[in-house]
From TrEMBL:
Alphabetized UniProt keyword annotations: Hydrolase, Magnesium
GO molecular function: hydrolase activity
Name of the protein in its database record: HAD family hydrolase
Keyword Kinase: no
Length: 273
């Protein structure tokens, strides 16, 4: 099913409706300032290693703060298939089965789903000893920076026109983990305010994704196969949609090996449009 054919579209926000990444570096810089002096260089080295693909921590994995472990998952079951130490040493199967006998659930205090670029510097900072309350302060400061005159979000060419057209023909939903105030500011910066029939903020994806999808299917007159979920996070938006019988569009610039009859992969939203 194509975008034009589907009567209902569910969009993610961060990394989907805009694809800028400079703010992640700003966030990393704020986190670094909060770390003790003897940890700053190690944090910066780890963060650059992560960005360069030379570290086991990548988007799509999970970070277990308690065990300081980086986890590779089956995205459809959330079962751990591999585990590594922060330094990259692999756990054996017995260790994995003992520590993670069930599917993972994410509380974002002990278990973190690395769904987008926000969680990469966060995990590195926590690994090096930064307290959660300090990471949140840095997050808030970064969000304020993103709507200041110092920062300019890049608008995706044609997106506003397509959403304006689709709003007359389809039911458009925005579902994001960002808080309402941040979403309002970001949509204003992107000139996309008022283009969604429903905006779900603080969505707590992926732990609450199923609940949101169930409500949509219950309240709207659409079958699962008539809905397309669009996002850059396989765990948050794509796998849950496919499991519900929906279609999904995965925005991922890197090569993707997962195949599914209801899955379409694009490198950017611009390519999709």
């Amino acid at each position: 099913m194509t975008l034009n054919e589907a009567p209902c579209l569910i969009f993610d926000l961060d990394g989907t409706l805009y694809e800028d990444t400079d703010h992640f570096d700003y966030y990393a810089a704020q986190l670094k300032e909060k770390l003790p002096a003897d940890k700053k260089a190690e944090f910066e080295a780890d963060y650059h290693s992560i960005l360069n693909g030379a570290h086991p921590l990548t988007i799509g994995k999970a970070y277990d703060i308690e065990h300081d472990a980086i986890l590779t998952l089956d995205p459809f079951t959330n079962k751990v298939t591999e585990a590594h130490t922060w330094e990259g040493e692999m756990w054996n199967q017995t260790q994995i089965e003992k520590a993670y006998p069930e599917a993972l659930s994410y509380d974002f205090e002990r278990m973190i789903a690395i769904g987008d670029g926000w969680w990469l510097p966060f995990s590195a900072a926590v690994h090096h000893g930064l307290h959660m309350k300090d990471t949140y302060h840095c997050y808030v400061k970064t969000k304020e920076y993103m709507v200041s005159e110092e920062f300019q979000l890049t608008q995706t060419p044609g997106l506003k026109d397509w959403l304006t057209k689709w709003k007359e023909e389809k039911h458009l939903i925005l579902m994001t983990n960002s808080e309402a105030y941040d979403v309002e500011n970001l949509l204003r910066e992107l000139e996309l305010e008022g283009l969604f029939h429903e905006v779900i903020t603080s969505a707590q994806k992926p732990s609450m994704t199923d609940n949101h999808f169930d409500r949509v299917l219950k309240e709207l007159p659409y079958k699962p196969e008539e809905i397309i979920s669009i996002g850059d996070n396989f765990i948050n938006e794509v796998a849950p949609a496919l499991q519900k019988g929906m279609h999904a569009i995965f925005i991922q610039p890197r090569p993707v090996t997962i195949e599914h009859e209801r899955l379409h992969v694009v490198k950017s939203l611009q390519e999709l449009l």
